[in-house]
Amino acid sequence: MLLGLLAIVLGCSPNSPQKTAADDTPLEFKLPFPTGTNYSVLQGNQSPPTHFGLHVYAYDFDMPERSVVTAAATGRVVEVTDQSTVGGYDPKFVWATNMIVLDHGDARFSIYGHLQQLSATVKPGDVVVAGQALALSGRTGMVTQPHLHFEVVDRLLQSIGICFVDFGGGLRGPRAAEFCESGPVPARMKRFRGDSNLPRDVFARNGIRLLSDLPGYSFRDGDEVHVVGQVEGVAARVCFQIFPRPGGERLAAYYGDVRKDGRFDFTFTLAKPTATWELNPSAYAFNVVRVNEGVPLSPATSTFLCIYPRADASATH
How many CB atoms lie within 10 A of CB 167? Predict the structure, then answer.
């Protein structure tokens, strides 16, 4: 169980393992704990009470508090939240989850949740290799007991079916109550594939198709952001808008005009909102929507972003 806005099968999904646009070799994952250790699966894919919808391909591993959590694949750290000290089986704890997010390229991200407070050994911008220690397991957020929540998601936070190279011959994922032993890290998994860009169709449900590259997850305060795209239907303007991560009133909005052919092309300087989420002052949600007279034309699909101070984010993209 993890965030109410984030996402496990008895095996692998039909489109797994994933491939990147820049590399046609499969994107592989290993179990997210040290070689030689083993833990059972508390909750598997497509299983109650919480692994449905966005979380359908998630795993909960039965790890005691302060067990070492490792990177399931090589990637860049794009988010670290480890300030929370509270947890329990109540929706009020959903946003009290400590977590780490890694970018593996091609808009594929692994999430490690319910971590111990102040246990992260990595920071945003770091490139970590598969098998490297990230933090310690805990019981923060919405939990009934200590465990590690693990999933791989796309840029709309929809979980993706994966297999683990050290389990079942790499042909399936573990089922609930199965014990999983973490094997050695294959040398082929230690190469970093590069940072993600935001998929061009990430806001298609909002009637927006991007035609320019935007960072896949991390921005810097003061970045000059150039947004080019195409609107489906009729709209006078488009709006790049930022919200608090747990929800609430819009914190910032940047507008661009739409031409008669439906194209838009605008540039703005991104300023980190002064309002923050106390558990991670760099974390927000955002979307791009069509606007007429200041009113969005459709329900807005949103996703997450982090905005880091320039001095702290030289390596994030």
Answer: 20
